[in-house]
Amino acid sequence: MSLGTVEPATVAPTRRDQKAARSNDRVFLILARLGLAVVLVAFWELNSGGRGSLLPDYAFGTPSAVADQFVKLFSSGEIYSSLWSTVATVLYATLLSAPVGILLAVATSVPVGRWLLEPLVTITYAVPKVGLISIYILVLGVSGATHIALVGGATMFLYYYAMRQAINEIDRRQLIEFRLLGASWLKVAKSLLLRAASPNLIGATRLALPLGFAIEIFAELRIPTSSGLGALLEHDAAAQNTAGSVAVMLFVLIIGYLLDLALGALLGRHAKSVGVGAIV
Amino acid sequence: MKARELSLRTVSVCGQWAFTLLLIYAVWRWLLDPHLSPVLFASPAKVFSQLGTYASNGDLWAMVGTTLSEALAGFAIGALTGIIAALAIGSMRPRYGKVFEPIIGGFYAMPKFVLAPLLFLWLGTGFAPRTVLVTVSVFPLVAIYSLTGIRTVDADTVRMMQLAGASKLQIARKLMLPHTGGYLVISLVLAGPHALTVAIASEILFGASNGIGGFLYTSSEAFSASGVLATLIIGTAVALLLFGITRALEHRLLSARGLGRLARGNTAL
Amino acid sequence: MKRATAIAGTPTSIIPKRSDSAALAPDGPPSVQVTGVNFGYPGTDVILEGVDLTVAHGEILVLIGASGCGKSTLLNLVAGILTPTSGDIRSCGQPVSGLNRHVSYMTQKDTLLAWRNAVDNVALPLEIKGVSRRERHERARQALARVGIAPAAVGLRPHQLSGGMRSRLALGRLLLSDTDIILMDEPFAAVDALLRVRLQQLLLDVWQETRKTIIYVTHDLDEAITLGHRVVVMNRHPGRIAHDRPIPFPQPRDASRFRALPEARDIYVELLDALEGTMT
After folding, report:
1. What sections of chain C are H helices per DSSP?
2. Chain B residues close to C111, C-beta within 8 Å
3. In this structure, is residue A213 part of a structural domain?
4. Minimal Cα distance from A10: which residue of C?
5. Would an 8 Å CB–CB cutoff place B12 in contact with chain A?
6. Which residue among B20, B190, B231 sits closest to A277, beta carbon to beta carbon?
7. A233 touching B, CB under 8 A?
8. pLDDT tens string for chain C (280 positions)?
9. B44-256: CATH topology
10. Number of domains comprising chain A
11. Which CATH number belongs to the domain containing residue A198 in this structure?
């Protein structure tokens, strides 16, 4: 609701009306957003130019030049391999780090484990993990492993906290009932824990992939001889190709947005919020 | 009885941390340092002496000051713009407000570092571009949370106040503001540590020579393992301090409403 | 037999005494007058059709009916939150247009402000009117005492109070808003049965002191009979008045014991038949 106005208490209208109303709204929304986009691009186009204009082209590029570069990216096929490189790294890193985070969470949920490990977890969480990049390079070299280590280091904690939250929220009564029925701890883990944890873990994944994406871009920008979208961006920037940089940037923006949208659509229903805000 | 519990707990916590720190030191001194190349690692002794150097020649305070000021400036600007954006969109009817929401969503979903090359072009590598990155990271958090706060104001409660004769201004001040304020606090608590990590990351990215990230960068370029490790310790300490402060703030500000602990482990950088 | 002793030792207020509920109404326009009201959202089925209802000053009218019969909608119409498609609604002699300032509304969901303590919550109507801080706190404390909230609890926030106490708080706020008409939509439904009876008694005691007009919606037949000077059963699809039953026993009654009287049981059965009739 908007500030100061109140919509009347609603009674469920008929199904047909609901559907009609929703698709009407949706059409309006799409048209309005498209209109907004057009206005913004027009503003950009009108204000770009040489020095002295509001959005000089050495800094921003012109829409036409950027569009040109965009097309070139796709026609040369560069974009696909870069995209795949980035995405694959993020996926590997997430896949590898998730079990670590989960196991760590299980370990710290036992009193002994918690006493031993919790400060360690807090400390490693507080370490500025991007700062470890130089150490990773020295240990793992300038390779995919470094990227995975960097990304995984961050995503692991998302899974850790998600799992901790899930364990905390386990219904004690259900647990007791299960055990009274004679279930072994393994059975309990399988039926109760996993089932309870999956919404949290899915929520963590929803945050982890975009976060990993962001850190991966960071890594590609920072580490020479990387491949991927960040590397692409770096090349264009180094070559003073502003329009190209902007094109890659827009592409990454779109991908990031679509990724978030897709994750929301696919996982939203099943996910439990672990909280917002890990996106860099 | 409660006091006894409390002191037992304190002892346990102190014991935990003492144990952990000793363990780290032991592993460091006797496991890692002897076996890893001096390029990669330095002994505790060297690192502590490096820390001492930083402290005595003022570098420590300078780097912490730089990073914190970037984080703070970006945080302030991001929070302010976030609130304004949320108010602007929230005061439109939802139908129109939704048109503009993707702008905020775009900032949220965008991997912020992607702006770095362009920021470098526009602003160089100094304070400004790093602050911009922090701002861009904080803005969507605050905006989304504040917007959610505005949108979730209970319609029945608004009606109750209207029936009691409240003017729009009264409703805004007595209902909307405090309600949204709760969400705002949550977003600020989340955004705080986030701002710090983005500040450090952008210093590294821009190859700065000041700030915590800057020292990390220059130390690694100079292959000074003691520098890297010392700076990491400083960075960790600052982060821990910040987390402690935000956690305490969160507890105080939110427990008043029974909202409890909401911001858990969400800034995984 | 239990019933006999109960009657023998009862205070005079529930000794069966026939009286005319019309004697409640002083001269002057009725408190609420609903004439020929129809209501429905465009494109949906009609919710209320041809509803005629008159509520006298100081009368407690209970609306009861199956879900979807429009009783809440009727309250919303009287409150001015909704506007009838056709027909006339008057309160205190004046037509209802826009939000009806003669009316206070209490629902099952408490609309307390989470960040304010009990005193500040209860004092809200006075605060809106601009009453000075000292005076409104004074009156708030009195109201809180009146509704049975201990002085020790007045500094607590809603989340620290039990459901029953929050209901009392809401009632206290109603007291201070001091409108002629009070609308209540299942206000005590979320509270356990024993507590509910106590809250009903509180309501009746408060009514006795203030003689407000109350329109009360409920699902609970016992509650309806206990509280109402009159019980109106509503039909549904479309909503209209099906049965109007005065309860010829003066208020305040004994909220816990009135329902045990044989006359009350007879009325119960009568209303039950009427209700079941509406549900076919």
Report:
1. 2-8, 71-79, 118-122, 124-129, 133-146, 163-177, 193-210, 221-227, 262-278
2. 154, 156-157, 159-160
3. yes
4. C41
5. yes
6. B190
7. yes
8. 333 333 333 333 333 333 434 445 445 677 888 888 888 887 777 888 888 999 988 899 999 988 877 888 899 999 988 888 888 898 888 888 888 888 999 988 888 998 899 999 999 999 999 999 999 999 999 999 999 999 998 899 888 888 889 999 999 999 998 888 999 999 998 888 899 999 999 999 999 988 899 999 998 999 999 999 999 999 887 888 888 999 988 888 998 999 999 999 999 999 999 988 887 7
9. MetI-like fold (1.10.3720)
10. 1
11. 1.10.3720.10
